[in-house]
Amino acid sequence: MSEAILAASGLGFVYPDGTRALSEIDLEVAAGERLAIIGQNGSGKSTLVRHLNGLLRATEGSVAVGGAPVGRRHVADLARIVGICFQNPDRQVFAGTVRSEVEFGPRNLRLRGPELEQATTHALAAVGLDGRTAENPYDLGFSERKLLTIASVLAMSTPVVVLDEPTTGQDAGGVRTIERIVARLAEDGRTVIGISHDMRFVAETFERVVIMREGRIVLDGRPAEVFAEASWPVLASTNLEAPYAARAGAALGLGSTPTEPALLAALAAGADTA
Amino acid sequence: MSALVATWSGSWRGFRPYLIVLTPLVASIMLINTFLYPGAERVLFVVGPLSATEEGLTAASQAALRVIAFAFSVGLFALTTRTGELIEDLEQRGLGRRATFIISAAVGTVPRMADRAREIVDSQRARGLDTQGGPLARLRGLVPLAGPLVLSALTDVEQRTMALEARAFAAPGRRTVLRFHPDVPGERVLRWGMAALSFLLVLLALTGHLAWLP
Amino acid sequence: MAALTPMSLELREISYRYAGSTSAAVTGLSLSIERGRVVGVAGPNGAGKSTLCLVAVGLAPLTIGGELDGQVLIDGRAAGEAAQHELAVTAGILFQEPETQLSGSAPTVWEEVAFGPRNLGLSLDEVVDRTWSAIEALAIEGIVERDPARLSGGQAQLVALAAVLALRPDYLVLDEPTSQLDPEGTRLVADAVGRAARQTGAGVLIVEHKADLLARLCDEIVVLGGGRVAMAGPAGKVLADPTLEALGVMPPARTRLAAAAAAAGLELPAERLPPR
To answer: Quick one: closest CA in B to A91, which residue?
Structure first.
């Protein structure tokens, strides 16, 4: 039984100006889980993850990270456990070379010498930028810079990795690289949380999906449940649509097939019995 | 005059920020000048090692009154002018589109940059940058902020320039005016009257006729 | 007999190098957008899609400098001969970032949309007329009094699109307009683009990663690779091409399924499948 590495209990958040962003969030994430958070902009996805590293503090309820309540722990401490890679690389990248950008995170965690070197090289290899360490990040294209920011967080070897809209603006190759990264993290036993608008990517890469609407969680389950026809009204209530494979599977009467491989498997099973 | 307007309109509230800023300033002017005015002879009273002098007090009052007058006139202007209308009126009278654009767009720049700075700092903190330690930690935090802030501001400028050009901003001729602000005769008289009065006062002051004022 | 001026935005053998760059961003590119047709552009990042957009509307080289070879012809007339503000009226462009496209100088959405027509010095009646038409075309009457700085991403993009349409351009170029938007915003903008194209008869060039959007909106699709055209043809045909992913474009789900099913020897009854 994996114990929860992240837990939110009755979490609520109201901004200083009175706007409510989160209400009654109950969420437990086991170590090694791959969780996707989906929902329209403004539903509270980014607000929620900011509570996981202390950038925001709950105004109601509590949050526990690594088994202990967040309390007043500094962001710099929580960042050792939860590494968040935000959406816009151009609001983060500041170093003169790819290598020094990636080194920033581990350095803050007091890594030096061969340990630092190893963490950096490993991270750069994982995103495919290992041949470009001396280049200026702004000479890279936008999606490569995005991969650079992901490498920067990977290098910190945090038990939990949060990726905010990793596939936005990526071409086919970029999307596949991200999928490989998540798979590799899962193999290493790391917990991965992804925020995304790409339903296909969500269904195929994550084992649990949480739907948020207006600051609340409205559905929480495996892709097969969350994208099954019975859940479509909930999805529609927040203007989301199940991935194509799920809709195609339903149209063909094959039950819940949230991913293309699942659809093909169901098709094959159907063909066998035919 | 500002005091008159404020009392008449029944609320000093608008002037509050000005009062808040002014109070420490005026207090320090009064104190410093009254007690530490160089070369003063006529002592009014003594507090410990410091003596309050008449000359000092006079100088203090003069300086303080000037500062108060200045601050209140700025306040009066800011509170009684609707900037949108002011700009439209200026444009109607021939102020170029570039100037009007700069004035209207400048206001939004600060909140935009502030939001952006916050985003950048969040990203750096999420990578372990410690901004909650002592003052040295906070200072260190500024380094990874400067680069992205400046760079994003520059890219911003390029993007905005293209967007403006794509909306025919560089077209020749006058922009179509949306609203006309008619010049009410009463206001015109008041305007010219006040300008004349100011001019007269300056003239009198320069020629020494106003020496009797403190 | 007078020769008919072709009603299209044509790029002939375009090569363009950004100022300060040592290599060309696009080479030998030829493309044509006819009035009333929607042409989609897809391809991996760095293939030259954004460059193509900037060249098509004249921002490159007129505003951002750089070196251009080849011809850009708008309705038969060379674009290089026109001034930038004249081009703005013929070819409008929408970028991905809503924030930088709003002028930031208008207190309300209505004034933001009116910005373009005002710049042209049109009569007040004309300005009002065009502004309202654009607003109605995008169904944003509900937000005309709002502060443009406080809109959601999708709404801001709609306002930016209205602002471009208010200039009544003959051609509309859209560079990843839904990239920064959530699914709701994407749907709003995509529907609006489709409607605008149909109603105004403008020629549309749209760059997108989302194959489903391309499938929905486009008549033809061009795939770029390394600054050149890698594939071009009718939308349906290009999106069904099995080499699409190898070219850097994530194919529509339907195409992938069809290919995978065929490879596994399985039957996929196409008529029963949802279109997108």
So the answer is: B120
Query: Helix crossing, B97-125 with B83-92: angle to 10°?
Result: 140
Binning pLDDT at 50, 70 and 90, where does residue A1 land?
Answer: very low
Q: Decide if A162 contacts A82 (C-beta within 8 A).
A: yes
Q: Is the pLDDT of residue B122 over 60?
A: yes
SS3 state at C102: coil
Contact check, Cβ <8 Å, A171/C245: no
The CA distance from A31 to B177, in Å, is 63
Q: Which domain holds residue B209?
A: 183-214
Across the beta sheet with C26-34, what order do the strands follow?
C26-34, C8-17, C67-74, C77-78
Q: Which pLDDT value is given to residue C267?
A: 85
pLDDT at residue A246 is higher than 90:
yes
Q: For C227-264, what is each residue's pLDDT tens digit?
A: 999 999 999 999 999 899 999 999 999 888 988 998 88
Residues on chain C touching B156 (C-beta within 8 angstroms): 100
Q: How distant, in Å, are the alpha carbons of A55, A112, A149, B119, C136 from that of B123?
A: 10, 22, 10, 6, 40
Same domain membership, residue B67 and residue B15: yes
Element (H, E) at C29: strand C26-34
Considering all CA atoms of chain A, what is the largest pairwise distance in Å, rounded to the nearest integer? 63
Which CATH superfamily, name and number, covers C8-235? Answer: P-loop containing nucleotide triphosphate hydrolases (3.40.50.300)
Chain A residue closest in CA terms to C187: A239
Please count the other Cβ atoms lying within 10 Å of the Cβ belonging to residue B101: 20
Mean pLDDT taken over chain A: 92
Domain count, chain B: 3
| Pairing, β C171-175 against β C91-94 | parallel
- How does pLDDT run across A53-108, given as a tens digit for each residue? 999 999 999 999 999 999 889 999 999 999 999 988 888 888 889 999 999 999 99
* Phi/psi of residue C39, nearest 5 degrees: -110, 130
